[in-house]
Amino acid sequence: MTTFAKTDLNRVKRVPDRGHYDKETIYPIIDEAYICHVGFVVEERPFVIPTIHARQGDTLLLHGATTSRMLKTIQQGNPICITITLLDGLVMARSVFHHSMNYRSAVLFGQGHIIDDPEAKMEALYTFTEKLIPGRWDDARQPNATETKATSIIAVPIDSASAKIRIGPPGDDDEDYALPVWAGVVPITQQFGTPWDDPRLTPGIPMPDYLTRYVQSR
User: Fold this and answer.
1) Domains of the chain
2) Which spans in the chain are helix H?
3) I want to staple 112 with a disulfide (CB 3.0 to 4.6 A). Which of 5, 74, 167, 177 is the partner?
4) What are phi and psi of 124, to 5 degrees?
5) Which candidate, 3, 37, 7, 38, places its Cα nearest to that of 20?
6) Apex 33 CA angle, 14 and 171, nearest 5
7) 190-212 pLDDT, tens per residue?
8) What CA–CA distance (Å, rounded) separates 7 from 67?
9) pLDDT tens readout for residues 1-38
């Protein structure tokens, strides 16, 4: 098991018992999520931008247009903070005060650099595509030179990170357990709907097997 060192930067201060610092806990949260939020500062003003991400080992990948203010800021080596959250349930207590959510979250810290090497850049684009839909890279048309040139890929080595997780039932005050109020957890799950054809799809092209399997697995 590999663990990130606890520091003032990544230490979970509020309800520290929910904190985790091992990669075996943090990385699956990163991999399951489709969206992360990237925090950065431009001219002393903070910004937080939602974007897709992918992971290669101990590195988080971000991508976007070469004109992106966020990516331009990151590639200058400025420190950034990235957050990821998965909601697992609404926690309904007997008192309004103790209502909560079950969740898995991760906070990452690092500094990014642009990937210029053509082979490494193409590998990163492959990683993004396969994270979204495994099997799609070999099926769809791959990026051409113009598209690749218009895309920036930023690699962010994960220097520091922590996860915070809440599971289980509500925690009411002892005197409230006798109240005639329903309490419990409403689970939250993410699932795919039924895929529908592009109106301009060439007749006779079936939905690929890898997509069917992936949708059914989620």
Assistant:
1) 16-189 (2.30.110.10)
2) 23-32, 69-75, 118-132, 136-139, 145-149, 209-217
3) 74
4) -65, -40
5) 3
6) 35
7) 999 999 999 999 999 999 999 99
8) 34
9) 699 999 999 999 999 999 999 999 999 999 999 999 99
Inter-residue contact 83 to 67 (CB < 8 Å)? no
- In angstroms and rounded to an integer, the radius of gyration of the C-alpha atoms of the chain is 21
Tokens describing residue 54: 């992918």
Write the DSSP assignment of 178-195 as a string of letters. Answer: TSS---EEEE--------
d(CA 53, CA 24): 18
Q: Which token pair is 185?
A: 């957890």
Q: H or E element: which one contains 118?
A: helix 118-132
Give the CA diameter of the chain.
67
- Give this prediction's pTM: 0.93
Question: How far is it, in rounded angstroms, from Cα 176 to Cα 145?
Answer: 64
Contact 128, 34 (CB under 8 A): no
Q: Please check whether residue 84 is in contact with residue 162, taking contact to mean a CB–CB distance below 8 angstroms.
A: no
> Which among 216, 161, 159 is positioned nearest to 192, based on CA atoms?
216
